[in-house]
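Recap from last week: sequence in, structure out.
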Amino acid sequence: MITDHTLLGLATIIYFALFFFHILYFVCKRQALLAAVQYALYAAAAVQAAGILMRWALSYRLGIGHAPLSNYYESLIFFSWSVSVFLIGIPKRRLYPIVTFIASGISLVLMAYASLSPGVERGIQPLIPALQSNWLHIHVITCFLGYAAFTISFICGALYFFGPNGTIPARENLEDMNYRSIIIGFSMLTSGILTGAVWAHFAWGSYWSWDPKETWSLITWIIYAVILHLRLAGGLKGRRIAVLSIIGFASVIMTYFGVNFFLAGLHSYAT
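Predicted structure tokens:
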């Protein structure tokens, strides 16, 4: 019987194949392998989406129907999928193999961690009262699309210091993709914070409570707001914007992983 775990496991295998196709391309430099990369990316995202939808349908059969966005396992799966969706949305002329290679590796690690870590609960659980809101969908989806965009920004920022060469594109191209990714990520994160504030008002009676995840989300938002301000008003370019994009992603990691593991708060259900 095919289950959500079957499909998500298959998606993990496809991500591994995608990772392997990239390595073959870097070794052989054959354009046919780039086509295989593209098809594998589409397949991984499609199978993963099917697994997410099947998990959603299963929750209704269990009588606790809700979108699969409510616990740590589901968030890891959705984060991985968001990165792939963001890659698919990038025009082919701007999509560089080294970027998709690293991004698909991140998706693979997220999927493998979700599937193999003994500390990650993979069962479908009833929602706690704070999560029983339609705002959950908008809040989580926008936040993770923002995280996905910041992931690509981080990759471009890190690659800036290693190129250009035969594999890594020109720094101007990396900087352009970095900047565009930050704009999209900042817009998504802003939407996520605003919808989260409305959700918090209905769930806990206040729009803002300085919960650790709220605080770190605000810190992340401020970092990227500063990056955009310096770029637009001060003409920030080159190594400085690359460094700041890496710092911004470190804040994203703290917001998502660090808060869950090291700080207790209203978002503790995410662990």
